[in-house]
């Protein structure tokens, strides 16, 4: 009897799979882009990139 319950429980769960990173990025970017613009994240990213470029000597 317990064996049947275990099989039913396993069948009800979804298999664990991983997504390709590009697929995950394509899913997130449409929401992330307006949020970055809305909260002023563009200036923060530009500031960080320029700081890292300065440290790298570029």
How is this structure best described in words?
With 58 residues, the chain is an all-alpha fold. It is built from three helices and no strands. The protein starts with a helix and ends with a helix.
Radius of gyration, in angstroms, nearest whole number? 22 Å
Distance between the termini: 69 Å
Task: Tell me the fraction of residues in β-strands, as a range.
Answer: under 5%
Helix content: over 70%
Unreliable spans: none
Instruction: Let me know the average pLDDT.
Output: 80
Put simply, the count of helices is 3
Structural category is mainly alpha
Largest sheet: none
What brief labels describe this structure?
58 residues; mainly alpha; 3 helices; 78% helix
Structure summary:
The protein is mainly alpha-helical and 58 residues long.
Topology:
Blueprint: H1 2-12, H2 21-38, H3 41-56
């Amino acid at each position: 009897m317990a064996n049947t319950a275990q099989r039913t429980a396993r069948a009800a769960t979804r298999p664990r799979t991983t997504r390709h990173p590009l697929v995950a990025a394509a899913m997130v970017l449409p929401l992330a882009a307006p949020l970055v613009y809305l909260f002023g994240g563009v200036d923060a990213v530009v500031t960080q990139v320029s700081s890292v470029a300065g440290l790298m000597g570029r």
